[in-house]
Write a structure and sequence with these properties.
Strand order of the largest sheet: 1-2-3
Distance between the termini: 70 Å
Strand content: under 5%
Number of domains: 2
Helix content: 40-55%
Shape: globular
Structural class: mainly alpha
Number of strands: 3
Mean pLDDT: 85
Number of helices: 13
CATH topology of the largest domain: hpI Integrase, Chain A
Low-confidence stretches: 1-11
CATH superfamily of the largest domain: Intergrase catalytic core
Length: 306
C-alpha cells in the first residue's frame, strides 16, 4: 500500500472514505454537522498515519495499540480534551465497523478501546443574590418585549426547564388551574413541570398582551414565529450584562441554579430529580457537590475562629 507524497488519502479507493461518508449520510441519516465532524476526524486520523502507511502499514494490520498511538498524539501534542478524544474514538470505531460490515476488513481494531474518562465538572450556578439582581433588572427594564422576557425567565427559574423544552411549549400545554405545564423532554418524552406564583403571574400577564396571531407557540418573536433557543440565549446575555453580573452563564445556568437553590433550602434529591426530568438519580447527585461547596464557603465566612 505505497503512497506517493502528493496523493490525496480521500481519493484512495482502498480506504473507502467516500463510501463511509455516503453511508453515514444516507443510511445512518446523521446530521450534516456530524458528517462534517466525522470527515474531519478521519482526515486527522489518516494525516497522522500517512508516514507509516508509506512504510506498508495497512488497515488490516492495525490493532488497538496502533490506534492508541494516535490518541496519545492528540492528547499530548494537540492538547485534546477527553471529550474530544472520545468523539475521535467514536468516529474511528464507526468507520472500522463499516469496513467490517461491508467485508473490507475482518476485525475492528477499535473494538477493544475504552472511552477516555471524563472529569465531572460542577455546573456553573448563579447565587440567590445574582438571581434577585437579574430579575430586578428585568422588571425595571422599559422595552416592548420585556413582558415576554420576564415570563420566559420566571418560567426557567421556577421550573428548572431545559431550553429545548421551553421553546417547544404551546399555549394549550399550560394548565393554569393546577399551575403545571406539559413539555417534551429528551427522547421526545412528555413530562410535567411545575410553576410558582411568580411564573404564573408573568405568563398570564404576557398572554394578555401577546399578539393575537395564528401560532400555537407560547413564546413568539418580533416576526410572530416560535422563539428560537439562540434568540433566548441572546436575550439572556443582554439582561445579564445589563444587571452587571460578570459571570459565565446561559439560560441553562438557571436550570442548575434552580436545582442548587432548591437543595440548599432543604429539598430532597428524589424530588429534584423528578422536577428536572432526570432518568437517573446519579445525574442529580452532582448538585450535592455544589451544595457542599456552598456549605464550606458559608462555614469559612461565618466561623468565629480561623
Amino acid at each position: 500500500m505505497n503512497m506517493k507524497a502528493d496523493e490525496n488519502i480521500n481519493q484512495k479507493k482502498e480506504y473507502r472514505i467516500k463510501e463511509f461518508i455516503n453511508y453515514i449520510t444516507v443510511e445512518e441519516n446523521l446530521s450534516p454537522r456530524t458528517v462534517k465532524e466525522y470527515n474531519h476526524d478521519l482526515k486527522l486520523f489518516f494525516e497522522f498515519y500517512k508516514p507509516f502507511l508509506k512504510q506498508e502499514l495497512r488497515l488490516d494490520t492495525m490493532d488497538d495499540k496502533t490506534i492508541r498511538e494516535f490518541l496519545t498524539y492528540l492528547k499530548i501534542n494537540k492538547s485534546y480534551t477527553p471529550k474530544a478524544i472520545n468523539r475521535k474514538i467514536a468516529t474511528i470505531r464507526s468507520y472500522f465497523d463499516f469496513l467490517v460490515t461491508e467485508g473490507y476488513l475482518k476485525t475492528n481494531p477499535v473494538q477493544k478501546l475504552k472511552s477516555a474518562k471524563l472529569g465531572r465538572h460542577l455546573p456553573k450556578v448563579l447565587t440567590e443574590s445574582d438571581i434577585k439582581l437579574f430579575f430586578e433588572t428585568l422588571y425595571n427594564t422599559k422595552d416592548d418585549f420585556v413582558i415576554r422576557d420576564i415570563a420566559i425567565f420566571e418560567l426557567f427559574y421556577a421550573s428548572g426547564i431545559r431550553i429545548s423544552e421551553l421553546t417547544g411549549i404551546n399555549i394549550e400545554d399550560i394548565d393554569f388551574d393546577n399551575m403545571m405545564i406539559k413539555v417534551k423532554g429528551k427522547g421526545d418524552k412528555e413530562r410535567i413541570v411545575l410553576i410558582n406564583e411568580s411564573a404564573y403571574k408573568a405568563i398570564n400577564n404576557y398572554l394578555n398582551q401577546r399578539p393575537q396571531v395564528n401560532s400555537r407557540s407560547l413564546f413568539i418573536s418580533k416576526k410572530n414565529t416560535r422563539l428560537s433557543a439562540r434568540m433566548i440565549e441572546y436575550i439572556f446575555e443582554k439582561y445579564l450584562k445589563k444587571a452587571g453580573i460578570n459571570k459565565p452563564a446561559s439560560p441553562h445556568t438557571l436550570r442548575h441554579s434552580f436545582a442548587t437553590h432548591m437543595l440548599q433550602r432543604g429539598s430532597d434529591l428524589v424530588t429534584i430529580k423528578e422536577l428536572l426530568g432526570h432518568a437517573n438519580l446519579s445525574t442529580t447527585q452532582i448538585y450535592t457537590n455544589i451544595s457542599l461547596q456552598h456549605i464550606k464557603e458559608t462555614y469559612n465566612k461565618t466561623h468565629p475562629r480561623e
